[in-house]
Here is the input.
Amino acid sequence: MGRTDELQLLADVVTASASGIPCAVVVQGEAGIGKTQLIRTACSDEGTSVLWGSCVHFAAASIPYAVVAAALQSGLSRLDVAGRAEVLAGADELGSILPTITPQSRRAAPPAASARANSRASQSTEAPDEPTPEPARLVPLIDLVLRRLAGREPIILVVDDLQWADQSSLDVLAYLIASDPYLTVLATCRDEDRADGHPLHGWLADLHRLPHFREIRLQRLTPEGTEAQLHALFGRPPDVALAAQLHERSQGNPYLTQLLAVGLSGVERELPRSTPIALRDALLASWHSLSAPARQLTRVLAAAGQPTELRALVAVAQHDGIVPAAVADLVSEARDHGVIQMEDRHQLWFRHPLLAEVLYGDLLPDQVVRLAAAYADVLAAEVTSTGAAALAIHCRRAGRFDEAFRWTMAAVEHAERLPAPAETALHLENACALWDQVSPALRGTPQDHLDLLVRTAGLSGVTGRMDTAIPLADQALGMMDRSEAPLQTAELILTRAAMAWRSADPGKAVIATLLEAEELTKPYPDSDERAHCFAALAFAEHWESLHREAIAHAEEAVQIARRSGSPLAQCVALSARACAHQHEVESNVLTDAQEAEELGRSLGSVDLIFEPALYRVWRLNRLGRRAEATELARRLSDEMHTMGARGAYYFGAVYAEGLIHLGRWAESAEVLRAGLAARPVEYAGSAVRLTAARLAARRGQLDEARQHLDRALELTSADFDGMRNLFSLVVAEVLLAEGQAAMAVDWLRPRLPVPADDLEDVGGELLVVFAAAAAEVAQAARDAGGARSCAVDARGDVPVAGLLSALPYEPFVAVRTNEQAMWKAMFAAESARCRGDPDQITCWAEVVEAAEHAGAPWEEAVARLRLVAGALAAGVRRSDVGEQLRQAHHQAVRLGAARLRERAEALARQARVSLREPAAVTDEQSEVLGFLTSREREILGFLVAGRSNGEIARELVISAKTVSVHVSSILKKTGTANRVEAAAYAERVGGLDG
Here is the structure.
């Protein structure tokens, strides 16, 4: 649960305690942070004897020694009558704090017990009068009994909720810790509910000076810690977006996270809006302990909706009947009870922001209006541009719509200056929603309304808020007079069409809409709008595989834009031409995309940068410059993050995909984690989820892969043109990882590239995955006793081997990069595996070499394992496949590819090949084995790793005969009979471990 370091520290303390080295540790943190659970986990070893005492808030201070008595009773309850009598001998006065001590518990005392105890036990069989406590003797008696318990076995004294301990118990604990320590003391303590003057402040200060006293302060969990907690709660990996929401709401408090997760299974995409009853009760527990005026003040603070300065709170509270002079004391009371805290810049807010939601939700409607009006008046007196958005909300809640509209537009201006496109769009949407409630004199003319709708629709679309953008665009189109404003109408039609395409509307319907816009621009042949129309047509036709039409329209768009001289038109047109020429080998895609990107930057438009930048990344990948493309994607993602642009997460997904290809999986996982936590929508969200699904499938995390894939399918249709190839690949990979090869074949058949499509980039990889799925189906049929080529796909009607040979084109005719050469070799090898050809070993050896040249470690590891499997099936000697197996296993371990690692280990067991790596001999080991030469010590390391003479010879680039001579010398010098004994000697004496 993200407490690895703290748990290890406590575990070390517990271990030391068992060895007779006591220590005292106080674990501090807020309520629900996991203090008690941490100690329980550290003390969970069956060999640890724990005396547990919990301080109770209710009337705890009125019962002296309460927690110490509870701990003593915990230890005594485990003893039989004789044991209790021995431990309690001479400690009758403890009956004042341990009522369970009876004469019977002392009657069976052995001769070693004190005379005083024996004489009392022999005088009467009746219960004696309750011993009169002697305060000066109680602490030493408690110490005596605990020492006797510790003498029987090492014990750990645990005190829970130390902040509620009575003073007498604190004195005893200080005595036990400060004197000659003989037992370990662990305690938990809240760092809230401790006002100035609380006795614990001085108690802790005194103990800090002791060398064996330590403190651990638990912080709230990180997002990764919350995710691990939810994994344990659900018994499965939680949806990453759900985990991010839970962490955001609980602020990393494990207890609140647990309450928020009640009733969830972990696969939900969104957190329910309602607050669970148990969570409400937990949040309100400390709040109910406040005085009535303090509770009233916290309600006023909750109505602020955000951290608030004290002077503003004082002013608003006065409107609610709280006198200003009382506010400081009420704030101190709420802070002492852990309800509120001081944020940065001297602002007050709730320690748990969820409490603000609960308190605000409990306000009556008239309270909401009254407090909102008060905040509006107070904030308006000294509002800054950064406070305009909050002031607009208060005005709207107070029903003061004209003021709300004014401040909303001020918030728009502020967000634009930053720039912050997403926030600007949200404020504009609020302005549109207020329009009908605002007085006509303030809001303006119908044309002003139209301009606001067009502006809002465009920016909402750019920031991915399609559910709002499309209705606003439709509303604006309904208000337009096409005969009066044909160019403005055409431009809005283009915007609406782009939104529809991104929402996965049918491409041909988009083209029909674009032709309608083109018709409106005919009277204006050199206009920006006409250039935009042809550029949009080229883009849509490209994705509909109408390549000739796309190229023609892109060229016309560039010509019009050049004539118009408009930087905007030229940017859009050049970007369209870069898109249209992607499929041509010889083209100026990089030049056009670079120029369009620079124009977009000069215009200050993130949206204009996105598409040409993406075409540059695609083109670099196509040219075999994978590392360069990946680095460019990273820079673009970072740049767009700083601009608050929607494209940041899409480029993040492209960057993560590149890292997967390059074998940098740990880095890819970190990039994807950030993207998943942000929950982007539309194709950016799908790209992040699909890439995460691919990585999870390759890592063997199949539940997680399926979860990401299902979410991607919810965000975007698998037939959306812009994502179709990526969907095809990832769904097939997940199905293969799940062992559903026949379903993968069935899925890919209708999605294979057609002759006009590109077979050098993603299409090439798609064919390889299809061939791999077909080979798995064919192999399964052969294993089941079927004919060599009769394996059928999931439909049960087509032999899979025939599918590969019946493609309507010859794939991989033009190979221009190392990566394309690798796909071609893999397709040939998988086709041979599908047919069961005897030359598979040669084919896979070619793939290994091609993958090495392409810098593709996953494909290289797969190819090595396929080669080994084929070699073993053909009866090749194990010594000839050992190095291939070890390299594949090493690569799988480095990547974190669990399925490949398990496959390598299974093949190693089958071939009886050791996967151990030869250990380098350290200086210390060289001294122990100094009677061997340096070369003999080196070869001895290989013997420990289980290498044959031939393998050692290949590794060290010497002859096998030379290795044999060295091995004989090693046997003679070590006095061993064979290489196995020599290896055992090296491990036992020299400390070598392969």
About this structure: Residues 58-62, 103-132, 756-762 have pLDDT under 50 and may be disordered. The CA atoms of residues 879 and 951 lie 7 Å apart. The two ends are 33 Å apart (CA to CA). The beta strands are 24-29, 49-54, 155-160, 184-190, 213-217, 308-309, 340-342, 347-350.
